[in-house]
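Sample A.
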Amino acid sequence: TEVASSAADPKRGTAERKLAEAKSFLRASQGDLSSPPDQFAPVELVSRLARAALASACQSVRQGFPHEAEAAAALALALATGVREIDLGSIVWGGIDSAESLVLDRDCPILHRTVFPPPNAAKRNPEIESCLAPITNCIAWPIPTALHDVLKSLRADAPLPGTPVLPLRSGNVKRRYRLWDVSNEMLPEIGLGATQVRLALAAELTRRFGPEVAQLVLADTFSQSLAPAYYTATLESTVAGAIAEIQEQWFGVPSL
């Protein structure tokens, strides 16, 4: 959901929006990550919504209406990545060396996503760095290849580094769309939105790896203790492989 600016105090509204954006662990979504994923969103319904969103976006692109494809593509991107609606406009084109925290690779279907360390995390001693297992501050989050192709098609020309992946989403507020409206118009009978699917994704990652992995890769405390996040040693490649498996189940097409 969007954080609306207060008419009486615009500065306060701006501050609230900044606090809600994905820059650290300031956010705390609600949801018991120990619950079964199906309790948030049954996988059968998630699959229906994900495949419908991707198919709608692909069809609009094929018919020559890329602007009409963006809302469905944004919904599919939110489902595939767990990026909150307020942060979708912050996703830009680039590469692994880009400075932004949410960067969609121009050449391959990967979202380079900054992994924020928990507050006051210990810093490694450079003198013993060579003796320690390597760590990463970024996860290469796979997305379906078909979705990556659609997102590249939203622009008339090749995307340039630093330009927004979702032009309408990052532009004039009046031209923005709400993901709940998009999903409700697409499949009104299932009553499922991106927020519920995000919690299901977090619960599935928790089931496989523990809550700390869901917290770190989604940059969200989920209103739970961050203590395990200080000690986790899960391989990035293992997490990325699990994400690809989840997406293939949801979208019916492989990632990478």
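Sample B.
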Amino acid sequence: HIGLHKTGSTLLQLKALKLDIPENVRVISVHHDADFEYRKWRTSFVDLRNSVLFNLRKGNRSTIAELAEMIDDLLKQPDDQKIIWSDENLLGVPPGHRIGRNIPPSLKPYPNSDLIAKAFGKLKNRYEISSRVYLREHHGLVRSLYKDFTAKLVEYIDLSEFSTRIEIAPEDWLSVVRDWRKALSHRFEVAEFTLGKETEIDYINNFRSWCGLSEVQQQQVNTAVVNPGISQKQVDFAKAVAQYTNEKNKPLLQKALRLIV
């Protein structure tokens, strides 16, 4: 499960993948408390991924082979063990993220997702890999991003990451889909982000079904909300500070308000 960002990935990792997991199933996620090995692996993976992003090394066959070898080392398990892996950062650096601000503009939201997809593709015959990505309608994506960024409206406001993402056209996200579909063929599928159209428990159980896990009940997942929606207080706060923010960010904040209010 590779995301995209802002499609409930954290919700699925915290709620769908922490209940009724069979003994022969290994869950890989940064939110899986016991998986220290993965945290260490992920650091090395991100370092290699970013070295390509900053042109410190070429995104060639050698790099793809090295990425595939890293993935292979992580996946090596007994033959009867199933692995459920959920991490939206497998796609690469999120669009507009502070890590990538000095990267030359790319035509794709995730500039090196094609390399990562090819690395997984090299292993598709060694493992029975199935991959899923969720896509979200544009207006809902903007609202979710806005909720995150209003939390940062203190002192110096930098909305460049938000601005970058809302400028990405819906069809541009499909370029990421094409990379993975080409690499994994019929083993890759696109699902619709349906939170808001269906209940949280239905969204969770749809994902668990795809994972081959049994359904869970609402009372089992009644924990704190992972990512609540935008409150009126956040909207009012953004309006209040808009007049005080610097000239560079003022148009971005005003555009955000026009889009979601």
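B remarks: The chain has ten helices and four strands. The CA atoms of residues 121 and 184 lie 5 Å apart.
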